[in-house]
Amino acid sequence: MAHQFKAAINQLNKVSQLRHITYDELEILRRPDRVIEVSLPVIMDNGKIKVFTGYRVQYNNTRGPYKGGLRFHPQVNLDEVKTLAFWMAIKCAVADIPYGGGKGGIAVDVKTLSLSELERLTRAYTRGFADFIGPNIDIPAPDVYTNPQIMAWLMDEYSHIKGENTPAVVTGKPVEIGGSLGRETATSLGGFYVLEQVLAKLKIAKHKVSLAVQGFGNVGMNFALIAQAAGFQIVAVSDSGGGLYNEKGLDLKAVLAHKQKTSCVKNFKSAKNISNEKLLELPVEVLVPAALENVIDENNASRVKAKIILELANGPTAGGAEDKLSKKGVLVIPDVLANAGGVIVSYFEWVQNLRHFYWDQAKVEDRLKRQIMNALEKVWQTMEAQGNNNMREAAYIVAVERLVKALRIRGI
Ligand code: GLU
């Protein structure tokens, strides 16, 4: 989508009308603090040089250092990175963790790179941005198609440049080098806690709930496994190659083994193949988009049959779809709350790195639950006070009020 950032910022304008925040104060939040674009030459395995473009957008650091993932995907562009950085600023404020927002990316299809090319590209990115990141400046983390190994290379390269071991420059690292227990499953577990609590509020019994999960990467897959283990019925999953549907429920462990063997979920023996588009329109209670932006838009919103949408991806519901869904009574649990578990445990990882003192998994998960439940309660109360079913609007009110308060206290 060409004007993703403009559409995202629109949400701010709605909040300003509701909360009488001055034009000037909001003007600060309408644009990123800093946009950096760096050229990244990499020697490929065939000896040829290929020049990639690396982006980092530092949105706002009023409440703490910039924080946000690093995305490697062919669709990455500056408008998208700006949008994702803005959402991180809102997310950190909703979660009430002491960070501003940031995001980085490279337009690349990682499936076309060898492991050593991927390492050289990551190290080139780190060198390109070494002066702009740091434990008290800006802390990257995994996002779409980046993983703990990539974070390890980033941490290693940065530590070499600075001449000191600096694990707190990045989160989502492998546990062997300062990663936090529970970080890999944190986004999924946080989303699960939120969903369970929302169902309890709506008095919907767990055994009546069927779920369809779009996206079988780290977040979608772990969410499906956690939800199934807790007694929910997962009837559909998909990855970029297509999806599977069995109205009686899927055996996820077997689907996972099948994906490991064939590299996609489709053509699994005891389920029907369906397209990603059809998955979004299935008759389920809860739809969980866990892949990319704008999969639910004005065209397909009227065909969505789910009663609840749990946004584990960033921005899966396009602006125009939201009104249609809300008129149909669909409750959208917005990304800035639903997937905040990842950055919450990133915060715990950073704290552990700075303290050189590590927590066990039970402590991480217990603190995650407390932090995300507090965020949910605050958003829910705000939504009730607004008298509607628009959780995104409530989340933005909570975030903008916190950001503006911090701005006023610090001064400009
Ligand atoms: N990429 C994740 C997100 O969009 C995590 C960011 C982080 O941990 O800093 O929330």
Can you walk me through this structure?
The radius of gyration is 20 Å and the shape is globular. The protein has 412 residues and is of the alpha/beta class. It has helices at residues 4-19, 23-29, 78-95, 115-129, 148-162, 186-201, 218-229, 252-262, 276-279, 319-327, 335-338, 341-355, 361-386, 391-410, and strands at 34-43, 49-60, 66-72, 101-106, 138-142, 210-214, 233-239, 242-245, 272-274, 286-289, 308-310, 331-333. The strands form two sheets. A seven-stranded mixed beta sheet has the order 9-8-7-6-10-11-12. A five-stranded mixed beta sheet has the order 1-2-4-3-5. It has two domains: 32-177, Rossmann fold, CATH 3.40.50; 186-338, NAD(P)-binding Rossmann-like Domain (Rossmann fold), CATH 3.40.50.720. The mean pLDDT is 96. The protein is built from 14 helices and twelve strands.
* Spatial extent as radius of gyration: 20 Å
Instruction: Examine the secondary-structure arrangement and name the CATH architecture of the largest domain.
Output: 3-Layer(aba) Sandwich
Into which percentage range does the β-strand content fall? 15-25%
Summed up, the helix count is 14
CATH topology tier name of the largest domain: Rossmann fold
**Low-pLDDT sequence parts:** none
How much helical structure, as a percent, in the residues? 40-55%
| Class based on secondary structure composition and strand pairing | alpha/beta
Number of strands: 12
Each distinct ligand: glutamic acid
- Number of domain modules: 2
CATH superfamily of the largest domain: NAD(P)-binding Rossmann-like Domain
SSE ordering: HHEEEHEHEHHEHEEHEHEEHEHHHH
Strand adjacency order, main sheet:
9-8-7-6-10-11-12
Determine and state the CATH class of the largest domain.
Answer: Alpha Beta
Average pLDDT number: 96
